[in-house]
Design goal:
Blueprint lengths: L7 H63 L10 E32 L2 E24 L2 E16 L4 E18 L3 E4 L25 E11 L2 E3 L4 E10 L2 E11 L2 E2 L5 E2 L2 E2 H19 L6 H4 L2 H27 L9 H34 L4 H22 L1 H8 L1 H8 L1
Antiparallel strand pairs: 1-2, 1-4, 1-5, 1-6, 1-9, 2-3, 3-4, 5-8, 6-7, 6-8, 8-9, 9-10, 11-12
Helix pairs in contact: 1-4, 2-5, 4-6, 5-6, 5-7
């Protein structure tokens, strides 16, 4: 049986069918090629991104080590306040001076040029340079256990009588009154046996060194008169006659930490303005979206590394500045004192990151995302947020402490 030969219509159908089939094959090949090219580009971006991340990590470790070497004590950004006081006050710390001295002692050991003498009671009067390692000082005079003397004095006791030049040291239970200018500074150690009372600092882990307690009288801070029944501060001072001048970083006046920062209730206006700006920029970024650029895709890992690096720098600077302000160092131990100190130092930092660093980072990242540079925005925003958390957080530290610490102080101090 003979097969039918294809007609012209059949030929046209065959040509059209095979033509479409070939077009689809070509289209599939092109799609496969595009997929392979896309995969190749993604691999290339990932490789470059990994290389950038590795380089950023190595450079950050080197930079962090160099920073610690250059600034082992951190960077001092805390505002210094000038305090003037006339009236009753008490001080814990070291005392230096040059002038009249009238000293009484019991069970003392005298180390002078003439030898070493153990005396039951002693009185020393004269004019001398003096250096008291640690003392409790108030309007009645000073109480201490060690003093270095250099000058012309008279030593009177049953065991020794001497009048002339002395350059030596005395240990024992002593009290003294001084004339002339007296400098009050930080001590190398704290002598708990000279405490008259422990101040309100039952919660605040502050060293009992360079502590001033100002009471009745006239007080002003930075030229502004303060009406307070009691003021606590930590700093260094100078007493001339009845006038006491102090340089300090932070003050607790009656029931809160002293600040002149303008606030809405207890929230500083600076914080409110930062949040308003961040919210506006964030909302704008929801409506204006730029396509992510290829270069930006390579920066994700780098943004993470830079965030970790500046977080470490910010936290280190915060801890060092807190040590300067409060006089205590963080000890990594499980003692109650250590836990309280760590919590007191780190809780305000966490709050500063939340109310300062987060909105700044969000504002920068949102602004850059409108340009298609989200990862670059993170690489800039995270460091900026952490550095601002340290710098502005320390400046606003009294406000932050009033928000989170003062309620506990009031609760536990009654």
């Amino acid at each position: 049986m003979e097969e039918d030969e294809p007609t012209g219509a059949d030929n046209e159908f065959s040509d059209e069918f095979y033509g479409d089939y070939e077009d689809k094959i070509e289209e599939n090949l092109q799609m496969e090629g595009k997929k392979k090219e896309r995969k190749r580009r993604i691999r290339e971006v990932n490789v470059k991104s990994s290389s950038l991340t590795f380089v950023a990590g190595v450079m950050s470790l080197i930079a962090f080590s160099m920073f610690l070497y250059a600034f082992p004590s951190g960077i001092d950004v805390a505002p210094v306040h000038s305090i003037l006081h006339e009236g009753e006050f008490a001080f814990y710390g070291a005392i230096y001076g040059n002038g009249n001295i009238e000293l009484y002692g019991e069970n003392c050991t005298l180390y002078v040029e003439n030898g070493t003498f153990n005396v039951d009671e002693v009185k020393i009067v004269g004019v001398a340079l003096y250096n008291i390692s640690y003392a409790y000082y108030n309007s009645s005079g000073a109480r201490f256990h060690e003093i270095f003397l250099k000058g012309n004095v008279t030593i009177m006791s049953r065991e020794i009588y001497y009048s002339g030049y002395v350059n030596g040291k005395i240990n024992g239970n002593m009290s003294a009154r001084f004339g002339g200018e007296i400098e009050m500074k930080g001590a190398k150690y704290v002598d708990s046996y000279v405490y008259e009372e422990k101040p309100f600092l039952k919660i605040v882990p502050v060293a009992m060194d360079k502590i001033f307690i100002l009471e009745d009288g006239y007080t002003e801070i930075e030229g502004t008169s303060i009406n307070a029944s009691k003021l606590y501060t930590r700093g260094e001072g100078k007493l001339m006659g009845e006038g006491l001048s102090i340089k300090s970083h932070i003050e607790f006046v009656d029931s809160k930490f002293y600040t002149t920062e303008k606030s809405f209730y207890i929230i500083p206006y600076k914080i409110i303005f930062i949040w308003i700006a961040a919210i506006i920029i964030f909302i704008a970024s929801l409506f204006v979206k730029g396509g992510q650029r290829d270069m930006d895709k390579k920066l994700y890992g780098t943004s993470v590394i830079l965030g970790i690096f500046f977080f470490a720098i910010s936290l280190f600077l915060w801890i060092k500045q807190a040590e300067v302000i409060f006089g205590k160092s963080i000890a990594l131990s499980l003692t109650l004192s250590s836990i309280v100190t760590i919590t007191f130092f780190l809780l305000p930092y966490i709050v500063a990151v939340a109310i300062i660093g987060f909105p700044i980072k969000t504002a920068i990242t949102s602004a850059m995302s409108m340009l298609g540079m989200t990862n670059l925005g993170k690489a800039i925003g995270r460091p900026a947020g952490f550095i601002a958390s340290f710098w502005l957080g320390i400046v606003l530290l009294p406000c932050i402490l009033n928000m989170i610490i003062v309620p506990f102080i009031r609760l536990f101090s009654g």
